[in-house]
Each structure stands twice: as structure tokens, then as C-alpha cells.
Amino acid sequence: MSGDFSIQNIDNPDEKIVLLTIDDAPDKNALDMAKTLKELNVKAIFFVNGHFLDTPEEGEILKQIHKMGFPIGNHTYNHKSLRDLTEEEQRKEIVDLNDRVEELIGERPQFFRAPFGMNTDYSKQLAADEKMLLMNWTYGYDWEKDYQSKEALADIMVNTPLLRNGANLLMHDRKWTSEALGDIVKGLQNKGYKIVDPTQIETPANKETAAQ
Ligand SMILES: [Zn+2]
């Protein structure tokens, strides 16, 4: 695995692939984004925060997204910078969210992405203990002022010089990202990229299951 956590196509090295990920979910747009992706028959990982899962209504949205076939990743409970927290606080941020997700969908997340992409040695150890694959990203733009519109974001996500085989694309639960999502998927596909099914990615948890 390389430094930006790109994805390698082991089975078919000639096929160009990208991974879609959606962070800070499920806020106001995640369910619509899941529906858009489902209509286009492609998958993404939804990295969720616990503070979006506190109420039964929010829990229902997560259940729906999971039922539509999307893997759920851990993006911590409160989206705090892990480097500012004690080990006990980091544990609560990470493990309590896995407990909450399991309570809702019956399984624990297999992917972990730290807020702001900033891990600590302890958070890396916790992710390993929880059998999660650590993820960062290759590129993303939807938090930058210049790209907070459907047109600008759809254009840069597909035409950036950073697009390459195995790229890990970061998006967020945002209105403009939701609006651009269909065009982003079609634009990537038009450039010959296949959207990876994240359930095909090897993680510490599924590696262990496969070995049994
Ligand atoms: Zn985030």
C-alpha cells in the first residue's frame, strides 16, 4: 500500500480503477448520494461520524445506506483531531463508534480514516486491534471554496492531473458534492476508469475470515 493509500488491482492489473469515499456522513446528503450511486450501479465507502448517529432517525438512515450495499467506515465519533486527545479519549472516539455502528447494522467497520487524515501511533494501533484498514486519500476538492458548485466540482474531480489508476477519491456529505456525484461517476467511467467495489478490498478483518 502506498503513502496515499491508493488501491491496487491484483486480479486485473490492466484495468484502471478508482475508489470513491464519502466522509462526514450521514449528514443531510448521504442518503441521496447513496441513491445516486445505486442508480449508477457503483459503490463507495461512507465514512461516518458518531455525532450523526445519535438519534433513532439518524440510525435509520445509516441502516438504509448499509442495506443498499455500501460499506460503512469509521471516521471517529466527534471528528476531533486525534493528536489533541488522550489515549482514553482516542479510544472512545474510535471504539465507541464501532460499537454504535455494530448496534445499528450488525457489523463493525472495516475501514478507518482519521479526521484531517491525522493519526497517532495509538490510533493506528487501535485501528489494527479493531481489524480496520487505515485509509487516507489521493485527492479531493469539495471543501475548497473554488469547487463548491456542481459544475466546478464535477469538472475538477474528473480532470485533475491527480487522477490515476488506483486513486482514492475523497468526497464529503455536502450539497454540491451530492449534486455533482452523478457527473463525477460518469466522467470517470468515460475516461476508462472502473469504480471499485470496496467489499473487494482486502482488510485485516476479511483477511482473517478468509484464512479460517
Ligand atoms: Zn472528515
Automatic annotation (TrEMBL):
**What GO biological process term is on the record, naming one?**
carbohydrate metabolic process
Looking at the record, the residues that make up the NodB homology domain are: 16-196
Protein name as it appears in the record: Polysaccharide deacetylase family protein
| Highest taxon listed in the record's lineage | Bacteria
PROSITE patterns the UniProt entry points to? NODB
The protein's matches in InterPro entries, at most eight in alphabetical order, are given as: Glyco_hydro/deAcase_b/a-brl (IPR011330), NODB_dom (IPR002509), Polysacc_deacetylase_ArnD (IPR050248)
Q: What is the originating organism of this protein?
A: Mesobacillus boroniphilus
Q: One GO MF term, please?
A: hydrolase activity, acting on carbon-nitrogen (but not peptide) bonds
